[in-house]
Amino acid sequence: MSHGHSDPIHHPEVQMATNRNYITGFVVSSLLMLAATILVKDHVLPSFGLLLAIIGCAGIAIIAQVYFLLHIDISEHNIWNTVALVMFIPLFIITIGLTWWMFSQLYMRTMPMMPGMPGMH
Prior knowledge:
There is one protein chain. The chain is mainly α and 121 residues long. It is elongated. The N and C termini lie far apart (71 Å). The protein contains four helices and no strands. The mean pLDDT is 84. Keywords: Membrane, Transmembrane, Transmembrane helix. It comes from Igneacidithiobacillus copahuensis.
């Protein structure tokens, strides 16, 4: 075993796994999902405000899941998991951005314009 631990139960990552952390992560994520669902169902905010609120709920839920469920923080025994996460984030954003760009370009080039739509000559 790494770090001189012969018994896997004494490994720092195993020691961090508690029922309290898992339940806290689950409850926080569930409450944020419920809040986003209520915001969308009841049309509480205008479109752009609703989009920002949903993005905020999703961002907080991701942070809660990374911390409480995956136990990723900046501690010494967890440094490589943190590095992997930091390297993953820009790649994820680039992938989502390029996918959105690809489908928006595909839509503009393949969908016929309907009569009376802006841009028709």
